[in-house]
Design brief:
The protein has 124 residues and is an all-beta fold. Helices cover 0% and strands 52% of the residues. The protein has no helices and 11 strands. Strands 2, 4, 5, 6, 9, 10 and 11 form a 7-stranded mixed β-sheet that branches. Strands 1-3-8-7 form a 4-stranded antiparallel β-sheet, with no helix packed on it. The radius of gyration is 13 Å and the shape is globular.
Length: 124
Amino acid sequence: QVQLVESGGGFVQAGGSLRLSCAATGRTFSNYHMGWFRQAPGKAREFVGAINWSGSRREYTDSVKGRFTISRTNAKNTLYLQMNSLEHEDAAVYYCASTPCSVFTQDIKGYDYWGQGTQVTVSS
């Protein structure tokens, strides 16, 4: 079991940047692959990006490629999402999640533990 707590969300103008963090406690952080998901009002939760246990493998949904960067610092038990050139379509509640080290996937069903979410609001 792992506990995840997101932070770093807030209000930002279109074209601006935010860095989200996800602090993990519980089992050894490096035993898990990690992912970021987001959910806007009235929409399903969707995949944003994922990173494997060592940070050597990363995947992103097409809409954020080139703008978002997922990273992790295992020594600090922390996951990050650097978001640049934010667009109105990026506004959502962002969640971090973990999946066992035997699974690396973009599928929401593959993730076992979730944070509480952090709100990102993008204004003009």
